[in-house]
Amino acid sequence: MPRRSHGNAARLPTARRRTAAALRLPAAALVFICVVLITCHAALGAPVTVIGCDQAASAIQITTSGDYVLDPSCTYTTGITISASDVDLDCRYAVLDDVERDDGRGITITAPSDVALRNVRVRRCDIRHFLNNVRVSREGFKDLAEGHEYDVQYENVVIESSRLSDSRGSGVFVNGYVTGVTLRNLDISGSGSVGIYLEAGSKGTLVERNHVHDNGYGDVTPEGIPFVVGGVEIRYLSTGREGIAIDGSRDNVVRRNVIERNSYGGIFLYKNCGEYFTQQPGQWWTRRYGADGNRIEKNRISDEYTGVWIGSRMAENTLFMDCSDAPYSTGPLSSIRLDYAKQNVVDRNVFTDVAYGIRVEDDGNAITSNRFRGSDSTDQAVLVGTLYRTSVLARPVSGTTIARNVSSIRDNLAPFGWIHGHTGTTFERNRARGRLATLVPGVQPTINFHLFVKQILPGS
To answer: Which residues, 6+ apart, have CB-to-CB distance to 30 below 8 Å?
Structure first.
């Protein structure tokens, strides 16, 4: 079969075919360039705004949608506030550093409580020394009526691929009634307080693939922290803080993180008691919800005193916190209040060299398929129970599921324990050093004189 000719060129004389081909080449090239330009424009979207070194010492406000980049050759010293949806901020590894230590915030994402924010991404930043290196908030959230806190929500707010170091307070602070936040691929270290703080009422935060380490030492000093009681100054040694605080925050997923060497522990779940009710009334607000319905899964937690503590304030003395929640047990120097952290799941995590892997002091929680390793035979894998709620209110911890966990802690054949009683506990298929384990009576860990107070210094 003769080969089919292509268009009219085959019927032209040779010279004319060459001329036509010569004329067609620029046209083909033009078509190619146009296709490339259209494709690139579609991929790039809106033009990119460069926030240059001339603005590095100024407070930067991003109030319109668009793509923004920083200049990596300079240091930004005052912080950036984002208050618009559809914003992509690529720091390109530029440094944001509160060199004046003026208690600012590195990057703040915020809008009035009746304004929704969507599709905000912050990435490739190196943020240092701010009060909070990252803060996501809603203006006026304390005034939201009960039952209407989530009428307006945030969606797809992503902080990722960044280094956050040496904040004076929490490294990342997700404020009250904030929703839809993802914290991903962050290295968070040296925070004076908590590495990641999920404030009361926030919910639906995804915390994944972060390295949260060496946080919570801001108040840990050998000379102690001054504190005034009845006009007398005393000094105390502080416990420091944990890597991740889930404070009355719900329905979060914390997964595939590496959490290690934080001052007081790995992940604590609790409800703030309404602190500083009379001492700082302008800062006080009602905390309505417990730390309920969270999933903590597939994390690696090591070199901590406590790995995961559910209901971490249930037996803690909060006398000097000036709480609005009513105490159920009081003494000359003590005030104990209920804590709330129910229906949480701790699943498929690995704990290495942790004194108390998982502690459970509230009801309806599930501890499943975790692994515990350690070289110290006194380490405990799981400890269920709470002192004062059981002894004063006759309400032991109930409804705990402990299943399919495996401990290889050296020389410890009884790493699963209970204290002060428990009811409705499901304990099945747990193993210790290759043998089926049982749930045995345990020993109450030390309860400090007061929340965060490890020791009152002599002579103070």
So the answer is: none
Decide if pLDDT at 36 tops 50: no
Residue carrying structure tokens 């946080």 = 215
* Residue 7 located in a structural domain: no
In this structure, are 154 and 34 located in the same domain? Answer: no
pLDDT range class, residue 32, cuts 50, 70, 90: very low
Do the Cβ atoms of 437 and 418 come closer than 8 Å?
no
308 pLDDT above the threshold of 80: yes
**Strand intervals (E) in 154-294:** 155-165, 172-174, 181-189, 196-198, 206-208, 211-213, 225-229, 232-238, 242-247, 253-255, 258-260, 265-270
Please count the structural domains in the chain.
2
pLDDT grade for 232, boundaries at 50, 70 and 90: confident
CB 63 within 8 A of CB 83: yes
The phi, psi pair for 329, rounded to 5°, reads -145, 130
At residue 109 the predicted structure's pLDDT band, cuts being 50, 70 and 90, is: very high
Residue 226 domain boundaries = 51-456
What is the CB neighbour count within 10 angstroms for residue 239?
Answer: 20
Strand bridging mode 380-384 / 350-360: parallel
Higher-pLDDT residue of 16, 383: 383
Report how far residue 419's alpha carbon sits from residue 396's, in angstroms, rounded to the nearest whole number.
9
Shared domain for 35 and 55, answered yes or no, is no
Q: Could you tell me the two tokens for 414?
A: 């009884």
pLDDT of residue 460: 56
Cα separation values, 18 from 14, 23, 255, Å = 6, 9, 65
β-bridge pairing 232-238 and 453-456: antiparallel
- Residue 42 CA: distances (Å) to CA of 34, 39, 84, 355, 397: 12, 5, 22, 54, 57
Between CA 245 and CA 194 the distance in angstroms is 7
Angstrom distance (rounded) from CA 298 to CA 276: 36
The residue among 95, 60, 64, 65 whose CA lies nearest residue 79 is 60
pLDDT tens-digit series, residues 170-208? 999 999 999 999 999 999 999 999 999 999 999 999 999
**Rounded CA gap, 248 and 417, in Å?**
26
Tally of residues, the chain: 460
